[in-house]
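Hi all, posting the design record for the shared folder.

TITLE: backbone redesign
STEP: 1 of 1
STRUCTURE INPUT:
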């Protein structure tokens, strides 16, 4: 069967949606950041602006407003739930997939290599998680992909307008996450290098013109809608930079060792990491033979090095944008190899690619097999929403924000300076708490995706919070419902007796 362009788009879209849409509210358990970002988006959909009331600070996407803005519009159209929040990321991932296909097609690759690129993009286990999670990385990566597409198109066709769109779209990724600054800088450096080498400074001028539109939007937002003070914003962004309270070299080493350990899961994914990093290094040797491959590889490798050097922490999620450059480089390198049974090098490369794909594929299967029988979050949402009246004050977990979105909730992440209470104990002793919705599932060690142990301090804090709320509820209320789940524990709903002064938990 000869693969046509129509076949590539059809098969790629179908495979991607089949993988992503099933068990959307089961695989994986809800992440703490998902309701945090969703709260800002929900407030926007209700006409309250881009404000964070779940936590009460600039966390959750306040200063990087493009993601909650887009998700808020999606909530307005389709309702607010974990499913719709994750569906938004799935659709963004689909648009990003089309960008990958467009990049490979613009390079005149044979259709089988274009389809190969779409397959490894779709089944990459990091992409699988990122594009089904309600976090801004999905939109950030999608914008970087399309920014790269127009950069490559501008290079191939010497088009000023392509560089304009590259500057506009790539710089917009900053409005999703500040870490995207690295890619904007590298895109700028690449276009500047092209302009100098070809003596066509209109390229960099158009790129900067596109970026200036994003800068103007950011300045206007800062001037009129910013919830956080400028000094606090700068301090928090600088805290993300390596070398804050410790030495620069200690921070770099910690970043690198922690990233490798978490990304490779010991030795389970070491081959995956080596392939993704190795193809970027390999691509540098095509400096004379294939300029596009060299550009893609140099941006990808430079962004990895800059992430390790300057970001704290450099998370496994942060690698997803770099991963895009690796997948494009791998597709380009594969297209240049003349495979022959007599050529041991080409056969070895074929085996490595097969193992790489298999490792990612089985990783996805493992997650699906582990979680598909989980109690769906939609069930948890409907049960809690049915029991707890709207517009009541509830002590709970931030993870249960979705069913309590029309309530005033308090939890361990609350910024108390934004409330009328001094701290959590002040709230508990105020007599204002009307309901408590609590589960001990977060105090049982293990992360949502890999299941690895969390830091001892994190585990201890979650356990202490659960014990405090549980003891408060027992002393001051009655349990009216227990929602039994196999992944969120036994969720207990308590109604407080506010006719008497609450029993203090402080000796």
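Okay, here is what came back for every position:
SEQUENCE:
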């Amino acid at each position: 069967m000869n693969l046509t362009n129509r076949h590539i788009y059809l098969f790629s879209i179908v495979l991607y949606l089949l993988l992503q849409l099933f068990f959307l509210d089961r695989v994986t358990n809800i992440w703490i950041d998902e309701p945090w970002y969703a709260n800002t988006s929900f407030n926007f959909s209700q006409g309250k602006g881009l404000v964070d009331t779940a936590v009460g600070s600039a966390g959750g996407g306040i200063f990087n407003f493009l993601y909650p803005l887009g998700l808020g519009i999606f909530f307005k159209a389709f309702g607010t739930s974990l499913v719709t929040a994750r569906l938004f990321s799935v659709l963004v991932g689909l648009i990003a997939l089309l960008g990958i296909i467009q990049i490979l097609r613009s390079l005149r690759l044979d259709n089988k290599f274009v389809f190969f690129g779409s397959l490894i993009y779709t089944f990459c286990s990091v992409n699988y998680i990122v594009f089904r999670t309600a976090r801004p990385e999905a939109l950030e990566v999608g914008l970087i992909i399309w920014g790269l597409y127009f950069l490559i198109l501008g290079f191939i066709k010497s088009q000023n307008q392509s560089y304009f769109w590259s500057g506009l779209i790539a710089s917009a990724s900053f409005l999703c996450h500040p870490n995207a600054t690295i890619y904007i800088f590298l895109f700028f450096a690449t276009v500047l290098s092209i302009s100098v080498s070809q003596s066509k400074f209109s390229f960099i001028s158009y790129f900067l013109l596109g970026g200036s539109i994003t800068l103007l939007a950011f300045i206007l937002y800062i001037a009129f809608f910013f919830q956080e003070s400028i000094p606090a914003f700068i301090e928090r962004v600088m805290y993300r930079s390596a070398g804050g309270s410790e030495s620069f070299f200690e921070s770099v080493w910690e970043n690198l060792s922690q990233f490798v350990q978490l990304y490779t899961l010991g030795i389970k994914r070491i081959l995956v990491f080596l392939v993704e990093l190795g193809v970027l290094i390999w691509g540098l040797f095509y400096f004379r033979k294939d300029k596009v491959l060299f550009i893609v590889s140099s941006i990808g490798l430079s962004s990895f090095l800059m992430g390790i050097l300057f970001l704290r922490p450099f998370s496994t999620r942060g690698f997803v944008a770099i991963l895009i450059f690796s997948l494009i480089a791998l597709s380009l390198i594969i297209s240049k190899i003349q495979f022959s049974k007599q050529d041991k090098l080409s056969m070895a490369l074929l085996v490595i690619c097969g193992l790489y794909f298999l490792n990612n594929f089985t990783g996805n299967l493992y997650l699906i097999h582990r979680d598909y029988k989980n109690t769906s979050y939609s069930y948890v949402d409907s049960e809690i929403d049915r029991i707890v009246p709207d517009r009541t004050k509830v002590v709970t977990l931030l993870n249960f924000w979705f069913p309590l979105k029309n309530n005033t909730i308090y939890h361990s992440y609350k910024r108390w300076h934004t409330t009328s209470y001094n701290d959590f104990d002040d709230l508990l002793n105020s007599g204002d708490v009307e309901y408590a919705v609590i589960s001990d599932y977060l105090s049982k060690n293990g992360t949502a995706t890999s299941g690895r142990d969390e830091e001892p301090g994190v585990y201890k804090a979650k356990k202490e919070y659960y014990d405090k709320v549980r003891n408060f509820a027992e002393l001051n209320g009655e349990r009216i419902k227990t929602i039994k789940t196999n992944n969120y524990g036994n969720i207990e709903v308590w109604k407080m007796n506010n006719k008497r002064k609450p029993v203090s938990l402080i000796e």
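COMMENT: The chain has a mean pLDDT of 88.
Let me know if anyone wants the other runs.
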